[in-house]
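User: Can you write out an input/output pair for a complex, sequences first and structure second?

Assistant: Here is one pair. Inputs:
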Amino acid sequence: MLRVGVLGATGYSGHELLRLLLNHSQVSIRKIVSESCKDRAYSFVYRNFTSICDDVCMELNWDSLTDGIDILFSALPYGLLMKHLKSDMLDNIQLIDIGVDYRFLDKHEYEYYYGMEHESPELADRFTYGLSEWNEDQIRKARHIANPGCYATAIELALLPLIKENLISLNIIVDGKCGLSGSGRTLTLGTHFPEANESVKAYKLTTHPHSYEAARGIELFCGKQPSITFTPHIVPMQRGLLITAYAQLKGTANYERIRTAYDKYYEGRPFIQMLKRGIYVETKWVRCSNMCHINFEINERTGMLVVTAAIDNLIKGAAGQAVQNMNIMNGYPQDTGLDLIPACI
Amino acid sequence: MLRVGVLGATGYSGHELLRLLLNHSQVSIRKIVSESCKDRAYSFVYRNFTSICDDVCMELNWDSLTDGIDILFSALPYGLLMKHLKSDMLDNIQLIDIGVDYRFLDKHEYEYYYGMEHESPELADRFTYGLSEWNEDQIRKARHIANPGCYATAIELALLPLIKENLISLNIIVDGKCGLSGSGRTLTLGTHFPEANESVKAYKLTTHPHSYEAARGIELFCGKQPSITFTPHIVPMQRGLLITAYAQLKGTANYERIRTAYDKYYEGRPFIQMLKRGIYVETKWVRCSNMCHINFEINERTGMLVVTAAIDNLIKGAAGQAVQNMNIMNGYPQDTGLDLIPACI
Amino acid sequence: MLRVGVLGATGYSGHELLRLLLNHSQVSIRKIVSESCKDRAYSFVYRNFTSICDDVCMELNWDSLTDGIDILFSALPYGLLMKHLKSDMLDNIQLIDIGVDYRFLDKHEYEYYYGMEHESPELADRFTYGLSEWNEDQIRKARHIANPGCYATAIELALLPLIKENLISLNIIVDGKCGLSGSGRTLTLGTHFPEANESVKAYKLTTHPHSYEAARGIELFCGKQPSITFTPHIVPMQRGLLITAYAQLKGTANYERIRTAYDKYYEGRPFIQMLKRGIYVETKWVRCSNMCHINFEINERTGMLVVTAAIDNLIKGAAGQAVQNMNIMNGYPQDTGLDLIPACI
Amino acid sequence: MLRVGVLGATGYSGHELLRLLLNHSQVSIRKIVSESCKDRAYSFVYRNFTSICDDVCMELNWDSLTDGIDILFSALPYGLLMKHLKSDMLDNIQLIDIGVDYRFLDKHEYEYYYGMEHESPELADRFTYGLSEWNEDQIRKARHIANPGCYATAIELALLPLIKENLISLNIIVDGKCGLSGSGRTLTLGTHFPEANESVKAYKLTTHPHSYEAARGIELFCGKQPSITFTPHIVPMQRGLLITAYAQLKGTANYERIRTAYDKYYEGRPFIQMLKRGIYVETKWVRCSNMCHINFEINERTGMLVVTAAIDNLIKGAAGQAVQNMNIMNGYPQDTGLDLIPACI
């Protein structure tokens, strides 16, 4: 039994982590840490946990954080972990960071995207990028994981086979759509129900950090630097993330070669499903699960490839992939605690 | 391992049954029967089952229906099962009917509510009413279950302790609210997205059959005949059912006596949670689970008791309670396959 | 041309007021006052006003508030107007208060519901209750209006004819449902999209002030004191309010007498429509309009009358009725600027 | 007073037409034609019209269709008008076709997109393409209008100034998002509430006819043939359409030159608003109005221009632009009956 701690437990990713970990046969939850809800029962904050988890949220104490646990999941907002994490804390435990602080850290990019200086860049090398299906060997050996972002996960899963096999141009446009849970639990006017419902918008049209992360991820696994123009959109729903990617086919690439490339990398992968030709990818088919659905078509008139991929932003895009990585790191079957059948209704 | 068949597998209740049964450790699904989708892969009808259940839906053949299975779940629209069910089919198998055909069957009431004559009233006596928490002893001995309706489940769970303990008047008003999945998968103008979204309505203001069922259920368990005025409403969401019940307190009934009555019947019941004083019942806290949440307040100015109860209409109100009943009938722990943590987001 | 000011212009009621007043042929908007958005263009706060109203929001200055205008609409949160309003301000202008501070003011009730002492109770007598259809004669003579609350409007419109004609018992249960705009623009966890969407809840089960207001309104127009048990619910939609009222019929009351009573008071009223027998009231049929739809059924088994009424909470429940009252006060046709065809899609 | 007929009056575009035309000062509605709802009161079909328009829907009789009216709006599904329209009918009346049958008709393309042979291609030349802001001079002289499609309207309005001024490459990617009303009133599984809500999907990834229409529109107004890769998406909301267009800047094009181009064509246009730099386009800001909002950003890292444009698919994308065209054809101010302030809440 792994002794587990969850940091940032009352955010949406933290909530999903607890839902997954409480039903995971190999772990025992020892610490539920939430600065904003300290001293409150978890089931008071999230009443769906009534009688399921009535533990009290602990204050965040960095000094004793790693005591008594084997693995820590961190789901903090950007900028907090990098301020407080110390090298010896990493020595003591496995750490899976759902946050952004150690994902392909580049000091200048970090300042560009997050508007603050990174305070522990020297620790970044100890983190392994946790795109489960593409970095399994490294994850197995790792003790500290930088868990991928939700959009970056979908973009990389959708594009990596094609770039790896040299089938598409590296100038790629990605148009993303995500439900409101992707914006987190912090109150903002943009996420106030009467403002968010019944509307769709593009935001951060050119400055969303996941375009950087996805490009670095592709570079890591393919050795090529793509140019990604990425525009995220907010659509009025709870969960779900869909990306629509556009790229020119290269050389002799055609429908069959594209499909063969996907099959090569994804056949037998329990969490990645290539849909049959002509079946539309929809976020509901993966909702509340760790699944990623992918499909594509070729626009014969313009020669453009259009790929769509859907994940649940909170699960495969956050907590689920984190648990998948924990499973890999600890030698459990990858789908332990993740055999969730999507709840399409 | 119980060998299981599901009849009406492509309706929403059937879909939820499959989601539950596929993750149930004690069953093996042998027959997925759907007349409307026969010969199609289940994962073609519901793409969330891609690679999870690609079995082909079988044609409905009444003659061989019970062959090779131990237990059959029927989730057919009203009027079908009562036309085709035969006594010897019941001899062969356990049957849990999620439909309405054998719930407190009264020939005249059946015609009143469903506009057709019941063709097998003689079989009704073989069915046990499956309100799990209130009829456990009978269910344990039963082989055929009439599984309660969604609204009836919530109404009975909310009112039974109070009527049993003689704390409220028997003239009760129940105002119900349910999401659109409660209307099923059949296409209607009222469930067309642009017609249903962003609107709330009352319907069947005086003729919803669940008021009859709830009254009979209360009579069965308390020996008293309540008068229930029930008005269902459709609210624009997928799942979830909330009832708000109004009744006059009797005699010396007060807050404490009400709470004591609830605790007497529900303490230790894993699927029924009395929320703490002042905490609002919300459907999201039970979504995608077999939970029922209940709370109440007393209007000191009018002496009226107001009880609210929430369930997931497709789970505790249909497929979940059916699995709970299967567990009871077969000696499994009640929560086998039902340890679902509600998905509030 | 009436010179108009709007106080609290950036709340949702203020926003609707501006939408109505800008298309009203008899008014000229002179002051748009918003403390929270002062010095910002109205079209910056609400981008739907881009190029339609780019005026800058003025700071709230109580001393000069009434200068240069003939009529002021106040849409402030409770507790502000009663603190600052002075008798001589009332002398200078017409005032329509969409807020609650002067509606059937009773000092003790005000403290009970709002938790603060009322500071200008002596001004309450100068306000006329603005239920347009029932108080038209008084409104015509009035200069200061306490505009009814949204729930109170629907409850009173639904019940007044029946109580006036002595057709129902005075013990009445009202179950209300309203969209999220009813909760205003202030950020709260309960109105955060991922918390509010896909859920329905009852709240303030016994303490919503509109039950008091509705009872006083009924007393004012009928001379009888009803006992109203009122429970509001939040349903996941933008706008729309539906009430479902339950009362016992009295004496010889029956379907025809009920309908006759409604016709007696509402025939020819442009904003109140009795739907035909059997047609369900739905909030979408009145959305974005000043309409109120009403219908009813009698439960023959329990003798209970069930009345449903729907309004747009922001229009007939706030800004629209305010404009209707302005029209009455100033001798304009009641529907000037209010000929809005509901937007059901 | 123009005597008006509406054909296909009970579809969503027809409904919006009636809402607009009933409040239009220069028209008198003479014929409401609906084959599917013939002999029913319009207010029975759409209860929001109760007491506003209780006229009975007429049967569709092609022989007498043009009798007694000056202008006909047709909102029929594809394939009907082209089957029945005759040259002499066009002689008698003005006709504004909201349908697709005469938009840039090419027989082969029509068969490709709609799977049927066009039966009256010889009439196509009599139709003028009704993109109001770009074809005003021709519309003024026209008697028969092919009203643009919703997506085509947004795409053309967003791209025309840039292509006209030679600022962007002609290889353009357009990612579209539209609410469910865009799918019409016909019942389908994909528009059934529990299937459509809480999900987003791409569909017709490479075969949506509006990409053809937009390309022809651009050719008409700029003399250049763009290559448009267009993917529409359905998002769970009632109304609203957003397009996100991606194109490479050409030569010396930069932020200022782009904005100057937009201003050149759109300054003073009441229905097209360029938002200020940094303000996000959102569908709610144009909801229930004839407005089009546009904004853009340049991705400095990839040199890609990203343009977003939003309209209400039923108004500027259908009924509103039709009324605007009627106004132009008949010498009324363009905004007659269209001074709708968007309903963002």
